[in-house]
Amino acid sequence: MSAVWRRPSLAGLEIGWRWLVGVVVLCLASIALRSYGLDVRVNLAGLRDASVFQPAAAIANLRSVADVLWAWAWPMLRWMVPSVVVLWLFVAALGRTVVLRRLDGTLQSRRFAVLVLGALRAGLLAVVWGVWLCGVGVAVRISITGPASRQGEPSIVLFCAMLIVGSLAVYVVWAAVDWPLYLAPLLAMQLGLGPGIALKAAIGSTSVRGKLIEINMVMNIVRIALIVLAMVFSASPLPFSSVETQTFLNCWWGGVGLVYLGMSDYFHVVRSAAYLSLWRAYNFPNSGRPREA
């Protein structure tokens, strides 16, 4: 962490390529909204009246609103999402190559390998998000809609418990199994390997597996801590809302969001630096410190 902190250009490059994609996505969203219009009618009164004391009604209102929004957004999403995914993968391959070579000038440019491995990780991450969403649906059926359909009493406590435990379980499992997808691009650039061979070499790095998983767990805990801090700072002006304007609150929340994204990007670079240093320490103990570009 301190080594990356002393070289702010690393985090600056990471922030640059990630936020570049964000700016382009916002422009695409703006064009899509102008093209398809904003005429969507949502039952906002039902959302305002939603209460945890009537969870079945709240879930029904949320479902009706989601159906309306999905029908309205689908014409945009069906062309926008593939475009954004392709843009992200190509820019990520170039951006990560630049950042890693800036981190260590001995690394080779293996853009195709980084692109393929990035696409693989994105696909698996989408599957994990799908599993999580299915789990949320199961929790809703077991704790709220199921009992309500049988004239029983829905349980918000059970729903929250299932949601928290299930989310943490998915989070921990993903952190424990996705480390080869972080290590493989580094090995591809370090050893000049193709994507398949690099992934196989990453999976076969049994000497550092436990420590890489530990780094992954710590980085994910740091991400959770950043989310909690962002929530705390976002809520801190609310006790003074009687003397604050909505413009100030919007600027404050936007600033907190940007700080969170910047720190998150910084820790992405820290993870890569830690992976590379640890793998070298075990496989090339006499290689010395990475050389700057």
Alpha-beta content class: mainly alpha
Calculate the mean pLDDT score and round it: 84
C-alpha geometry: globular
Largest sheet: none
Low-pLDDT runs = none
Distance between the termini: 19 Å
Number of helices: 10
Strand content: under 5%
H/E topology pattern: HHHHHHHHHH
Question: What is the chains' assembly state?
Answer: single chain
Rg from C-alpha positions?
A: 23 Å
Report the helical percentage. over 70%
Query: How many strands in all?
Result: 0
Secondary structure layout:
Elements (H helix, E strand, L loop, with lengths): L1 H4 L2 H29 L7 H5 L6 H49 L7 H39 L6 H22 L1 H13 L3 H9 L5 H27 L10 H38 L10
Explain briefly what this protein structure is.
With 293 residues, the protein is an all-alpha fold.
Can you tell me about this structure?
The protein has 293 residues and is an all-alpha fold. 80% of the residues lie in helices and 0% in strands. The protein has 10 helices and no strands. Helix 5 runs antiparallel to helix 6 and helix 6 crosses helix 9. The relative contact order is 0.11.
